[in-house]
Amino acid sequence: MSVNNQFTYEIIAQETPIVKRNCSKCKTNTEYYCSEKFRVNANQKVMDIWLIYNCTHCEGTWNYPILSRVNINKIDSVLIQKFMNNDIETIWNYAFQINKLRKLCNDVMTDIRYELKKEMLDSQSNEVTFRLSYKYDFGLRIDKLIAEILGISRSKVNKLSQDGTILLNPNMKMKSNVIDDLHITVKRDALTS
User: Fold this and answer.
1) What is the torsional sign of CA 156, 161, 165, 171?
2) Is the separation of the CB atoms in 188 and 125 below 8 Å?
3) I want to staple 138 with a disulfide (CB 3.0 to 4.6 A). Which of 19, 110, 158, 165 is the partner?
4) In Å, how far are 54, 123, 140 from 31, measured between CA atoms?
5) Which run of H or of E encompasses 155?
6) Cβ atoms of residues 178 and 11 within 8 Å
């Protein structure tokens, strides 16, 4: 009988992605960081919302458009309050819209610092399953994360995946990006080698 222990690993972003845009003050392509503040403009029945980014060199601003000319009656009142109060979770949800940001910027730098909140492994188990909790997608690769969790190289992770020692559910390629609720099962051989 196989004993399987399951652990949840939470991947916690420590910062929002930096974007690169042309700065009108610096006259060059430069980095902008998220100010963690919304700009809200309401004119009678319509509302505009932007997320403010600041240039790292001159503190010039760029307004990332969230809503444009939307009728106030069509926006949830709770969401409006989150915009007005600069709700951090709402800000981070928009700051991690990587695909939308890429359309508006020259580049989005997703190599960000993150914390891996984990539990201790039970050394008696025949195999272990890690369930990943990944709230903000910033393009972290599966093989990189597994290498970090197990303390082995990426090439060894790929070898163990090919021989069936490491299994992914849903079935994905090791070079794919991590998704929320990904299950990684590691057989005992990988834990002891």
Assistant:
1) positive
2) yes
3) 110
4) 8, 45, 21
5) helix 154-162
6) yes
3-state helix, strand, coil in the chain (%, to 5): 25, 40, 35
pTM, whole model, 2 decimals?
A: 0.84
> Which pLDDT belongs to residue 127?
82
Residues ≥6 apart with Cβ < 8 Å to 45: 71, 72, 73
User: Tokens 């490491």 — which residue?
Assistant: 166
The radius of gyration computed from the CA coordinates of the chain, to the nearest angstrom, equals 21
Work out the burial of residue 155: count CB atoms within 10 Å of its CB; fewer than 13 is exposed, 13-18 middle, 19 or more buried. exposed
- Given this model, what pLDDT does residue 1 score? 34
- Give, for 147, the enclosing helix (H) or strand (E): helix 142-150
Given a contact cutoff of 8 angstroms between Cβ atoms, the answer to whether 17 and 116 are in contact is no
Residues 95-127 as b or e (16 or more Cβ within 10 Å = b): bbbeeebeeebeebebebebeeeeeeeeeebeb
Start-to-end Cα distance in the chain:
22
Task: For residue 85, give every residue at least 6 positions away whose Cβ sits within 8 Å of its Cβ, in sequence order, or none.
Answer: none
State how far the Cα of 17 lies from the Cα of 95, in Å rounded to an integer. 7
* pLDDT given for residue 126 in this prediction: 76
Burial (CB < 10 A; 0-12, 13-18, 19+), residue 181, is exposed
Specify which residues 114 forms β-bridges with. Answer: 13
